[in-house]
Design goal:
Length: 489
């Protein structure tokens, strides 16, 4: 297509949603695409960073989906990477829960639970479950209500309460039931026991929560997104600008006109030295809160106040290189222990041995959930590293003297919070933004939905399809208009 006839699309964010949207748009050859990313690398929360020749994901991430389209998308991209030895390998998930010095298999295995909790505690759990089945909570409004109805109060207290409150920093009574319904759907104590005994014969019906197979790029989750990035600008001519902080979004008559950014990597550059980016369409995966507060002019007071009340949980990962192999066989360890702040441990070796510099070393990623105004977030990297080392030793997993080195990663907008009133605030914001004719929202933060990578991609593909349909409709209307003009002439 003639370059002059192409529509210009500006995408905010080079995470899975933004990169997917750019990749899909550029396939049609009808669009010029530019991505603006605030970070110095692409991939968002799915990036992989290297430290002392060891690689660390933020999470880490795994590739699992119920969508055949997304599954094929991943495999098609990674097929070319095999030339460079970067396989897309299938792994059998092994995950456990650490609670009171015991390790519980997840999904639950009855004998393992019996050994860890004692027969007496198990009987209490069963009685608690039977009680809630006979007398369920009728007005379910919180995470605690929802999970208790499915598992009983005793199991909720053991396997859900502590970890969930670490993640969100608020009581389970203050977390919306939406969170549980979205993340633990089709799962209950009875299904956990059923799949523990009979799951091998019913793998097609297993809830996603219990799925034990996933794919993973052998050099880290971020390698897939780095490949997509290269295809965007090498094969399709798309543009990706890093270190771009969006500070103003100009609009008029419910149409975005342009974005203004400053480059955070240029120390001589301040926020008054801005670059303006024009477009016909704008796709955003930036946090809804920031999107609203950067609109110029600002919307009404009710909408601004709703945006300010949206909350986001931050994530700090303590990434350690340990002079020891075979620390544990788990991909993830969920820490349900009140005595430590740590929420989860990812063992990078068990995803791929290419993630470490030496076969005798282990890469561990410790996850700490916080808010940007909390004391932990404001601590120095050295202090947080010491906390991570001390907590590993306290749990008996790793001795401090075995830790060779480590580094800290911080993500301020890791998890959109599902507090009790988030739906009301979100509805006000979306009702307003839906009036914009050339704005599409996508991704975890763009939709304020704590979704997985595949769902973020699906939201991007849907946005692209909407834009393409809109362009086809415009062309169709122009064709009809021209026909009528010819008849009149």
């Amino acid at each position: 297509m003639d370059e002059k006839l192409k529509k210009n699309v500006v995408i905010i964010g080079a995470g899975p949603a933004g990169l997917t949207a750019a990749f899909e748009l550029l396939k049609s050859s009808n669009f010029n695409v530019q991505i603006l990313e605030k970070d110095s690398v692409v991939g968002g929360l799915s990036k992989t960073l290297e430290y002392k020749k060891c690689k660390f994901d933020i999470g880490p991430h795994h590739f699992i989906t119920e969508s055949e389209k997304i599954n094929k998308w991943w495999h098609d991209v990674m097929e070319e990477e095999r030339i460079y030895g970067n396989d897309f390998i299938q792994l059998s998930r092994f995950t456990r829960i650490y609670y009171k010095n015991h390790l519980f298999h997840y999904p639950l295995q009855p004998l393992n639970v019996l050994r860890g909790l004692s027969i007496f505690e198990c009987i209490r759990c069963i009685l608690s479950y039977l009680k809630i089945r006979m007398f369920p909570i009728k007005n379910v409004s919180s995470f605690q209500d929802w999970v208790t109805n499915r598992f009983g109060h005793r199991l909720f207290s053991i396997f859900f309460k502590t970890y969930t409150e670490k993640v969100w920093g608020i009581s389970c009574k203050e977390i919306s039931a939406d969170w549980a319904a979205q993340r633990i759907k089709r799962f209950s104590l009875s299904s956990a026991i059923f799949y523990a005994f009979f799951g091998r014969w019913f793998k097609k019906n297993v809830p996603r929560t219990l799925n034990d197979k996933f794919f993973y790029p052998s050099f880290g989750a971020g390698t897939l997104w780095n490949k997509v990035c290269r295809k965007i600008y090498q094969d399709y001519g798309g543009k990706i600008a890093l270190n771009q902080n969006v500070v103003r979004i100009k609009h008029k008559n419910f149409k975005i006109k342009s974005l203004l950014t400053y480059n955070s990597s240029d120390k001589a550059n301040d926020e008054r030295n801005l670059t303006e980016h024009f477009g016909d369409y704008f796709l955003s995966s930036m946090p809804l809160k920031d999107l609203i507060l950067r609109l110029d002019p600002l919307p009404g007071k009710m909408i601004v106040n709703a945006a300010k009340k949206l909350c986001y949980r931050a994530l700090i990962t303590v990434n350690l290189i340990v002079n020891k192999k075979n620390i544990c066989p788990d991909h993830w360890l969920y820490i349900h222990e009140k005595e430590v702040m740590m929420g989860r441990i990812g063992n990078m070796n068990n995803f791929s041995m290419y993630m470490v510099d030496d076969d005798n070393h282990t890469g561990l990623s410790l996850e700490y959930f916080t808010y940007e105004h909390d004391v932990l977030w404001k601590m120095s990297d050295d202090k947080i590293l010491e906390i991570g080392k001390a907590e590993l030793q306290k749990m008996g997993l790793v001795k401090s003297e075995d830790i060779i080195d480590g580094m800290i990663l911080r993500e301020g907008y890791a998890y959109p919070v599902y507090d009790a009133n988030y739906q009301d605030h979100l509805r006000i914001i979306l009702d307003y933004l839906n009036n914009f004719s050339n704005l599409k929202l996508m991704g975890r933060n763009g939709l304020h939905q704590y979704n997985n990578m595949d769902l973020a991609m699906i939201s991007a593909i849907q946005s692209v399809e909407d834009i393409i349909k809109n362009e086809e409709l415009i062309l169709s209307n122009q064709f009809v208009k021209n026909e009528k003009h010819d008849l009149v002439v």
